[in-house]
Design a protein that fits this description.
CATH architecture: 2-Layer Sandwich
Largest sheet: 5 strands, mixed
Number of strands: 5
CATH superfamily: Ribonuclease H-like superfamily/Ribonuclease H
Radius of gyration: 16 Å
InterPro entries: 3-5_Exoribonuclease, ERI-1_3'hExo-like, Ribonucl_H, RNaseH-like_sf, RNaseH_sf
Number of helices: 7
Order of helices and strands: EEEHHHEHEHHH
Strand content: 15-25%
Protein name: 3'-5' exonuclease
GO molecular function: 3'-5'-RNA exonuclease activity; nucleic acid binding
Structural class: alpha/beta
Keywords: Exonuclease, Hydrolase, Nuclease
Organism: Flavilitoribacter nigricans (strain ATCC 23147 / DSM 23189 / NBRC 102662 / NCIMB 1420 / SS-2)
CATH class: Alpha Beta
Strand order of the largest sheet: 3-2-1-4-5
Number of domains: 1
């Protein structure tokens, strides 16, 4: 059993637009059944609908235009990601801070005509954390780290760094997560 703690970064704009977001980074860490970090995965992804990143997006994520220009398109990046976590060969559960990442994977799969059933085994660490901490409403990852006395490491809003930080909370409460729906 693998727990895939993941975080996505996507195209974004400062002002609300009708533009659809597209994944520009997949960051993930693999945790085994003993709560041990097994490996990490990171790739940038080249967007197709809006290939030019907004200044806001570059500033927020610290992802440069050259990072995405040199990156694979989503179908290839997804294949690399799935191969990394042994999709089809090992049981897994996708874990992210909220449901955004699951929805974004589904949207990008739809955009590229790819099956999205693989995202079904998923939990929101954010929402479960809020429940067992008895919070009135879920908090952001940065606030949860502060509540736990865990330092935020790396760059916030970078997929791989956020995945590493989420994994710290996941491992701390390893036996607490409701993990039904594992494949």
């Amino acid at each position: 059993m693998h727990y895939i703690i993941l975080d996505l970064e996507a195209t974004c704009w400062e002002e609300r637009t009708k533009n659809k977001n597209e994944i520009i980074e997949i960051g993930a860490v693999k945790i085994n059944a003993n709560a041990e970090l097994v490996s990490e995965f990171q790739t940038f992804v080249r967007p197709t609908q809006h290939p030019e990143l907004s200044e806001f997006c570059k500033s927020l994520t610290s992802i440069s235009q050259s990072d995405v220009d040199a990156a694979p398109h989503f179908p290839e990046a997804l294949q690399q990601f799935q191969e990394w976590f042994d999709y089809g060969r090992a049981s897994y559960l996708l874990c992210s801070w909220g449901f955004y990442d699951k929805r974004q994977f589904k949207d990008d799969c739809k955009l590229h005509g790819l099956d999205a059933d693989w995202v079904k085994p998923h939990i929101s660490v954010k929402h479960q954390y809020g429940i067992f901490k008895k919070l009135e409403r879920p908090v952001g990852m940065k606030q949860a780290l502060q509540m736990e006395g865990i330092a935020l490491e790396g760059t916030h809003h970078r997929g791989i760094d956020d995945a590493r930080n989420i994994a710290k909370i996941f491992v701390k409460y390893f036996g607490e997560w409701e993990v039904s729906g594992v494949r």
